[in-house]
Design goal:
The complex is a heterodimer of chains A (80) and B (479). By secondary structure, chain A is an all-alpha fold. Chain A has four helices and no strands. The longest helix of chain A is centred in the N-terminal third of the chain and has 16 residues, at 3-18. Chain B has two domains: 6-177, no CATH class; 185-479, no CATH class. Classes of the chains: A mainly alpha (80), B mainly alpha (479).
Chain lengths: 80, 479
């Protein structure tokens, strides 16, 4: 799994969870850059990602995810 | 030594002069000694309490960071935070804790009865305990390194400009700033002085002109007419905001004069279109604290429940936030109302988006601002009332009925007070509106000398002639 394909999959997943028509993600995207991605929806996104890739994040790992790039790295590492 | 007292003015001026007169390597020592004096001036036990909690937190932080095994780190972290919470609960609610101990362990005969002694509630404990928990949590999460300099850590905990009622600082804010050298900066010192002045205006000209009348209404609910209760409900958020944001401006302004940027606590809360937005603008250092250290860990644990997990976490978080203010059911209800409204807003976000399309953005936004204010004003009845019973009486007796005449609308305020408070409120809202676009204090500083000094003299004249210098306390000192 490479980061570029993963970003495309995550865009699709973000659109479904946030119920937004279009979400553009890059490795530098943060919650501030995406409309609707806030403390109310953050864990819904994490939960959806965990289900999709059958992985599990510890809470201290979640705290370390500052931008989408960190999320991609964590997913790739855990999916190996 | 209240911020609004001559003794504080004398103390502040002496500390400021000394701070910039001494060699920069002694500046922090001056601030730490001044903070110890400020706290000890209230009561020596307040100083001893904060020193014990600070040393405890400092060494727990070091211990957590130096431990290798994950299990042991976890145990250390939860033990230290639990200890901080227990100390806070015991000192905050001594009688309540005594009755809990008596119920849980009925056979244990406590050698010391709280009810038989007068127990002093250590000022500022709710604020610095939360600051200590924040420090330990950031170390546990690996977001911060433990502080090595015990004196810097003590200043982070004790700094007198934020000691009494916050803002609740994070290690990434104040603790990091303590590492920077502070040289005299004319612009920052004058900016701080002007911000203190604005805070003073909010407090003494707006809040203190309203407070005696609102206190009077809450003190004699059974004599008030339905209409007076409605007006009390509508006006109380303004008094509370002017009081607390006035305190915060004085705290931020005073800290700025020493070269420190404290965390802002308010960002025009009354333009919020939802209650969720209101809590991102109201008492921000507390609401962000509970978001980061209560709500987010809770949502993480309950993320398998989907939206129900978020609703559950919201309710628990806001009830905790309510109880932080006091042990009564009224405070729990105040928090619960916020949680229920935000849950409702989250569950009906799509419906509201469609409604906004139908009504048009301007009308929808206007109605949303009014709705948010009204719901907040109603919830504050539980916050302000002496008891849950009083709050229910208040809510069930609000109406448009009057006892004698329509003059009751002013809840006993004289015409002069109504005009002064009304004009100050409008000026405050206008100032905050334009200040959000451009720094008004800086803008005025760039005007020519005559214009600037006319503005300063007019405001100073207004402060001393119209200020209600009838109290030197602030609402949030009790927490």
């Amino acid at each position: 799994m490479d980061t570029e394909n993963l970003l495309k999959e995550l865009e699709q997943l973000f659109q479904e969870v946030l119920k937004k028509g279009s979400v553009i993600l890059t490795v530098d995207t943060t919650a501030n850059d995406v409309e609707g991605w806030d403390s109310l929806t953050n864990m819904l996104l994490i939960s959806a990602i965990e289900k999709k890739y059958t992985i599990h994040f510890g809470f201290r790992e979640i705290v370390k995810l500052k931008k989408v790039g960190d999320l991609c790295t964590a997913i790739i590492l855990k999916s190996k | 030594m209240s911020f609004i007292s001559l003794s504080f003015v004398a103390f502040f001026v002496c500390v400021l002069l000394l701070y910039y007169a001494v060699n920069s390597k002694y500046q922090k020592s001056i601030l730490l000694l001044a903070s110890c004096f400020f706290i000890g001036y209230y009561h020596i036990s307040f100083l001893l309490t904060v020193l014990v909690i600070s040393f405890m937190t400092f060494y727990f932080g070091k211990l957590i960071a130096s431990t290798q095994q994950d299990k042991k780190i976890r145990w250390l972290y939860f033990s230290s935070v639990s200890l901080l919470i227990i100390v806070w609960l015991v000192l905050r609610y001594p009688e309540g804790m005594e009755s809990v101990v008596n119920r849980v362990f009925p056979l244990i005969d406590l050698p010391w009865r709280v009810s038989q002694h007068s127990v002093l509630f250590p000022l500022g404990i709710s604020f610095y305990t939360f600051q200590a928990i924040s420090y330990l949590t950031e170390i546990y999460w690996g977001e911060e390194e433990p502080e090595n300099n015990v004196f810097d850590f003590l200043l982070y905990m004790l700094f007198f400009m934020k000691f009494l009622s916050g803002p609740i600082e994070r290690p990434s804010g104040l603790l990091h700033q303590l590492k920077e050298k502070k040289e005299f900066n004319y612009d920052m010192v004058t900016f701080g002085l002007k911000l203190m002045f604005i805070g003073l205006m909010k407090k003494v000209v707006l809040a203190d002109n309203m407070a005696p009348y609102l206190d009077g209404m809450y003190g004699s609910l059974h004599d008030a007419s339905g209409m007076q209760l409605v007006m009390t409900c509508l006006l109380y958020p303004i008094q509370l905001y002017a009081d607390f944001s006035g305190y915060t401006d004085i705290a931020l302004g005073g800290a700025a004069m020493f070269g420190f940027n404290l965390t802002p606590n308010f960002d025009r809360p009354f333009i919020s279109k939802t209650t969720a937005e209101l809590w991102r603008r109201w008492h921000m250092s507390l609401s962000f604290w509970v978001r980061d250290y209560v709500y987010i860990p809770l949502t993480s644990e309950t993320r398998g429940w989907g939206r129900w997990g978020i609703s559950f976490s919201l309710l628990v978080t806001f009830i905790s936030l309510g109880i932080w203010h006091g042990a009564g059911w009224n405070y729990a209800m105040y928090g619960l109302i916020q949680g229920v409204i935000i849950t409702y807003e989250m569950q009906t976000a799509n419906f509201h988006a469609r409604l906004a399309d139908k009504l048009g953005k301007s009308l929808y936004n206007g109605l949303s601002i009014v709705r948010t204010y009204l719901l907040f004003a109603l919830s504050l009845i539980f916050f302000r009332a002496e008891s849950f019973h009083d709050a229910i009486y208040f809510l069930t007796h609000m109406s448009f009925s009057i006892n004698h005449s329509w003059k009751e609308l002013n809840i006993g305020m004289s015409d002069h007070n109504c005009v002064v408070a009304g004009i100050t409120l409008v000026l405050m809202l206008v100032y905050e509106h334009y200040n959000s676009k451009q720094n008004i204090i800086e803008l005025v500083s760039k005007k020519n000398t005559a214009v600037r000094w006319i503005i300063y003299y007019v405001l100073a004249f207004a402060l001393f002639t119209m200020g209600g210098f009838n109290t030197d306390t602030f609402v949030y000192l009790q927490f």
